[in-house]
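so im writing up the methods section and need the SET domain-containing protein record in one place, dumping it here so i stop losing it
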Amino acid sequence: MAATAELEQWLKAYGGYLHPAVRLDHDASTGICLRATAAIPPETRICTVPFSLSLSYLNALAPGPDVTIWEMLSANLEPEVISRFFLLHQYLNIEDSFWKSYIATLPSPSAGFDTPFYFTDEDIVWLQGTDVEQAFKTRAADWRQKWVAGVEILKTADLSWQQYTWELFVWAASVYTSRSFASNTLLRPNYTEYSAYRKDGTGLWQLCSLQPPESVKEPFAMLFPVMDASNHSHSVKAEWSLDETSFGLSLWNEVKAGDQVWNNYGPKPNDELLMGYGFCIPGNPFDRVAMTLKALPPIIEARLRQTNPQLFSLPPNSTSSNPFQSSSAEGSSSKTPLPVWNLTAATFYLPGPQYRKGHYSHDMPFWRSCSSTLIEILFYLFFLERGIELPNDPAFMTGPERKNIDVGLYRRAYGCRYIMGVSRIMIRQLTSRLTKITQFDDTLPAQPQNERQGNAKIYRDGQVEILKTGIGELTSVIHYFHRRGNNEALNRFPGTTHTLSSALSAYRLASPSRHRAFTTGLRHVLGTAELAALCDAGWEADIWTLWLCWIWVEVASRSRATSGTEVGNNDERDEDDDDDDDEVAIWVNSLSKAYLPSVLARVRAFDDDDTAAGAVEEETAAKAEELLALVREAAQRRPQSLWASPWWSEQLVALWGCRIVVHEGYEMEGAGLVVCL
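--- predicted struct ---
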């Protein structure tokens, strides 16, 4: 009799159920499967497996001739490790195993599975640069450590421990990762009794009742013979049913004769499918890219302890019942430890475009799909990068604004600058992740040479698509604000973006004489004031820097001029120069309030050498000195203009102009360098 027929017979003999039109079969692509021999209508029960037939850690606890071995293992190892050793023990003693018919249908250890544990060197290159590559290395090290610990215990027992090889342990662990169900989804809460088969004194398998110890109340993996032969499809409408004694599978969709009878494992991404099951789904709608944030600067972590304590956990071996109190108890010499950054909790997921499609309610679709906690962290990084104090604004703490970026900062006057800045931070993160993968593209074969390589390519391509789509969507956010900045009805508002040309055009309308003085100075020192020619010659960023400093000097001169005697304050001006309500004041005030306030204070105190001589990065200082040489040359040619103002300094150019261009500038295809004003 075929092994599949024996397993069906075994299931029914011990109280299980398999629909009359369903048979165990072997598929060339998926291996053992369930197949319909006739059409099956919707809302049909397919299979029911008694809990007593399942195979898990609980079976190792059943009293029997070799119970001492499992007691020794369970006293020192986690339930998942005991499960693997118990399955391995059944495999090594298959002729005497209660689950003989089931184990005979499993993939053999020599054939293995299609997970990375069974990849050859030629296969593994397809995972270079991906998260799965590192996840596999981490899992392999963890499994080997647990196998070594188990074997050391087996050596002390009267058992042929040499048979429990690393290869067989990987096989047993792979059976569980690819076929098991989680106990917390199957067993009723606070269960106190469980049925399992054990050997009696005569060597026969008998049904007995167990009272699991407290340690077993944590979730663990369970194998359900026959039920686990049903393969995964995310489009199938499957229902898992539970009662006091059994686990059942029903389908709500029709199954045609000859088709596989599929199960639905849930919304699993390709990295999880590849690591645990050994396959991937092209165009998987639940695919995603994981983003794990490493430890953050202390000032940000201190804020996050208030707003997002779930991102932290107690240090190892800590016994405090309240990890978020750092004060010491009266009379105690030790303090309660502060929580430490939890990498698992700080892992966020960027879903694929198919999953995000249709979920947008505003013009920033990428951010709609991101965790509000991730957005909050990125805003803090934005503030810290620019030297801005973290906001005490409650919108970053609680309420609906923290949940929806469209309702919060997006609608504020300074929202454009903040959101564009955060978008650029995210673009850098995603671009780095993308480069980490694609740097190996030239070393890969033109096409996969086997099924394992094919699945790895599906996963790899999916990661690249998600990252590229995310970068594209974030770029569209920046483009949106740039287009808004070119709208005449909106370009007077702060937080819009401009090209150098549009900024100077707006400046010409607001301050014709000062615009003329600025461009004349450029003509004197650079030979031309034609922007297209200057940008083609590589002067675009420098002219932006000079102009940003120029408008700051202009506003500073207005507010600090004394009786019109300050040099540069009584330069040629037209009657339509408006000092009270123009783009210049709006731009400078916006930047002053929202950008580098502490640096601005240092620049204003230019006459105090100790205050003004802040630390300026060497490269930026060199650029500042280079541009100041141009300023001095222009001042000689235009001594009554702002070029000759004493407000010009290395600190102003480096800490104001250069940094705004660095942090607020965006290279945009077809537009050049745009800056958020």
